[in-house]
Structure formats: C-alpha cells, structure tokens
Amino acid sequence: MARNAKSATPVALTIAGSDNSAGAGIQADLKSFSHFGVYGLTAITCVVAEIPGKVTAIQPIKPEIVGEQIALSLEAFPVGAVKTGMLYSTAIIEEVASNLDLYEGEIVVDPVMVATSGDPLLKKSAIAAYESLLLGRATLVTPNLDELAMLSGRETNSLDKMKDAGRALVERYGTAFLLKGGHLRGRTAIDFLATEDGFEEFAAPFVPNVETHGTGCTYSSAIAANLAKGLSLSKAVAAAKEYITAAIRQSHRWDGVTALRHFPR
C-alpha cells in the first residue's frame, strides 16, 4: 500500500524497546498514539526488564528481525510518522537507517542513551552511528539534558546553556531539536523548539515529586502522533507538551511506585 494512501485513521510506527512496566518504550508509545487517535505499529528492538528507577536486563533483538518488522509495516500501512526510541547498538541503528532510506514521512528521533535511573541504554560505540545515520534525516530530535550534553559536547545545566547546545546541533545536522528543561527543576518546565529560524518556547508549571520514568518516550511519541495527523511541527510540540504535563500531573500512584497516566482525565 502506498504511504500516501487515504486512511480514516492516521498511522504511526514506533521503533523502540519493550518495557515490562509499560511506562516507557513501545508500551508508552502505543498508549500515546491511541490517546491522539492514531493507529500504532511497532518494531521492537530490545526487551528490557525494568521498573521505574531500575533496569536489570536488556535482550536485543536480532537486527535483521528489527529490519523485517520495519519493512513490513512500511509496505502494508500508510505510515504518516516514524518515532525511534531505544536502538541500543550500532547494528540495530544501521538496520533502522537502511529500512528508512526510502521513507518520505516525518521522523522523530528520541536518542535514548541513558534511563532516568542512570542505567545505560545505548552502547557507547553506537553514538557515532546515531550521529552519522539518523540525526541528519530526522524531522525532530528530542534528547533529554544528559543526551543533549553528550551529543553537543556542551554543558546543559541552565536554559541559556541548553539553547547554546541546541543551536550548535541545529547548525551541525540541519534539523530541529527539542530542548527539554523539565529536569532543571525550576518552577516552570520550559522547553525550546530549536530550528534554523531560532527558538520557540513551550512552558508549563513544573510538577514536583513525580517519577519521570517514560516522560521522554511519551513526549516524543505524542509529537509523532500529531505529525502523523498532519499538524505542523510547532503545533505537534504544543499538543504534546500539554499532554505530557497532564500525564505527569495525574500520574498513577501505588505503594512505592508511580507511573504516567497516558490517558489523562
């Protein structure tokens, strides 16, 4: 089926890891897609044993199987946007990039490198593959503060330094970057959409004392969903910012563990 085929329901594909706690990864992406009325497809790259604050095991999927999932999805469905999350290794990144070579839709790259817990989710050797194969072809890249620092080689511990790092990356790769300031923990969670035209600010009240496991996955997949629906990049980010703020504010809480509410009331 041609990718530009008419469809009553927009379609998005997530290429990411599986999180058994369902707050991040493929599970969070599918919930976010559904919230926005988008049909979600998946290509699983890794199976991760994790809960908020802890990663205990990672089992990567064979790269050729990752590629086959992507190829079949793009062949059969009118995919309006692709979101990449945890890719883990150079071999998987190469397979993803190869299968996206002829894809002409929107691509949101969430360069998952480190979990909120601090556990590594990407082999160090794979960072170069991200830089050479994926970042330049993305519609938008959505690093967290640590990933922004790793990619830019700059400090990111203030809004001004975030913008300096983002400006350098936009110039280097010629694509847009979403600079997320929530982890700076001010009274306001301020993000910047950095493009060749400058910076657009998106702000919401900071929500304290909430486990942030899965916020990056959820935010980026919400953007991809809205791009699949045909929104502009600016409007897609605005809708996703409102959504992630509500998902954090209304988080599920049990004894000793919390999780984002992907279908906020």
UniProtKB/TrEMBL annotation:
User: Which terms does the record give in the GO molecular function aspect?
Assistant: ATP binding; hydroxymethylpyrimidine kinase activity; phosphomethylpyrimidine kinase activity
SUPFAM superfamilies on file: Ribokinase-like (SSF53613)
Q: Which Pfam families match?
A: Phos_pyr_kin
* Top enzyme class: transferase
In the Enzyme Commission scheme, what number(s) does this protein have?
Answer: 2.7.1.49
| Pyridoxamine kinase/Phosphomethylpyrimidine kinase domain segment(s) | 19-253
Q: Which domain of life is it from?
A: Bacteria
Its pathway, per UniProt, is: Cofactor biosynthesis; thiamine diphosphate biosynthesis
GO terms for biological process, alphabetical: thiamine biosynthetic process
State any GO CC term: cytosol
Query: Is Kinase among the key words of this record?
Result: yes
- Swiss-Prot/TrEMBL keywords: ATP-binding, Kinase, Nucleotide-binding, Transferase
> What is this protein called in UniProt?
hydroxymethylpyrimidine kinase
Task: Tell me the classification of the organism that encodes this protein.
Answer: Bacteria, Pseudomonadati, Verrucomicrobiota, Terrimicrobiia, Terrimicrobiales
